[in-house]
User: What shape does this take?
Amino acid sequence: MLTLQKIDKTFQPGTVNAHHALRGVDLTLSDGEFVTIIGSNGAGKSTLLSAIAGSFFVDRGHILLDGEELTYVPEHRRARRIARIFQDPMRGTAPDLTLEENVALAYARAGGGLLRPALSRQRRALFREQLARLNMGLEDRMKTRIGLLSGGQRQAVTLLMATINAPRVLLLDEHTAALDPVVAERVLQITKDIVSENHMTTMMVTHNIGAALSMGTRTIMLEQGKIVLDLSGSEREALDVPGLLSLYRETVGAELDTDRMLLTHG
Amino acid sequence: MEFLLDSALLGLEYALLALGVFITFRILNLPDLTVDGSFTLGMAVSTVFCAAGHPFAALLCAAAAGGLAGAVTAFLQTVCRIHPILAGILTMSGLYTVNITVLGGPNVSLLNDSKFFEQLGGEAAAVAAVTVVILLLVMAFFQTVGGLCIRAAGSNEDMVRASSINTTAVRFAALALANALVALSGGILAQCQGYGDVNAGSGMIVIGLASVIIGEVLCGRRGVKLGLVSAVLGSVVYRIILALALRYNLLSANALRLLSALIIAATLALPAASAAVRGRRARKENRTC
Assistant: This one.
């Protein structure tokens, strides 16, 4: 169970650029819950994920995972249990390492000696099997430098790497936004499969309103660092994209406005 | 012919310097200027221990001292958040005092002391053996989990920061390893040339970079394993080029540094130069159609 208790964050406090990005966010996710997050630009969606991942420490409030206090645990120590994927497919993999070396690095996060060889025959076979399930032909390109793969391929590999050790929490920060629609659809499908298979608690920020409703079991809406809508169950199932947009208009008093909102039914 | 073999041997004595520079410059992707100081530190420590009658412990302690110097630079870079280049310069400058204190004078001779290679079948065989063993160890290390962490940090630091790898620890490990190799090179050289000199380190970063770049020109840039081998090869070729140039009076010994610097600058400028040429050509074609 992931619990956020009144977390609050101001960037550059005391300056003219002070930005109150998170204003007392309270949120509890039960095990295996899949939440999609929508909101306007600057609403605090990515900041919320960063706070959970530990890119910075929150000013006030607490972050707990399975009852354990994570509030001041540094990012790299949270990463074993909390995996995060960014929008930029270039960010999640090391371009100069081969595909198998990248996966090996992610796999080794689970622990074990630093001086053990990263790749063994056994591990290669395991990685090959995992890559084959992505259905992108990547299992035959394991010795390719990952910088030579396309954005979609790299993002699929990133997803595999993030989940290979079955983390407790998966944070997806618009991870399909930089991909072309067909590839994005494929990566979303892989996401669904991996999440349901591993029963991970998942938070997905998206600009694709259709996907926000069709994926997962709960949708929250952020506005100016606060959760303004929290939909689940039958209330959420009854909504379609126009319905969600008008609900947003009623709640916030403005149009849901982002520079690249996708209104298609995902 | 013999002067060629001699310079090849000298190249092997500097080969670990090239390996150290390759690790920071190409693998960690962060040029480290500690090198000038840590090379002399290794030389000073090796000289002092050798003079005291411990030629093998001399090499181990030289490497350990170099590792410590690298750790100081890493500390300045990470914990103190000082710009990496400046951090290296600070350590290097501070080390001058340390080195002259360790050595106890600007120049100490080892003329009558026993050296590590005397028990290992001669200078050439011993130096070659040490270089090959260390090269193989370093190559193996960069295929381990820890080695991959360092390579990933040099390739995409964003990724490493968001993963469970501690970037600070990676920086410490990489700089300590690189400077340990550099100092070991200085330690070997001190015993082979028979004296320790507090000014021997000046310009070592340029020599290391020149070796790395010559190696890349010869072997291309294809992976870490080949890169490490090519750094060693580059160090040997660098010394042979120097020996040839000096022997046939192509240039004075004083011109070597300038020439090395120019070669490095020219090689590093190649991508920019070829981009400029391509851009100009494209513009010209566009104008004519």
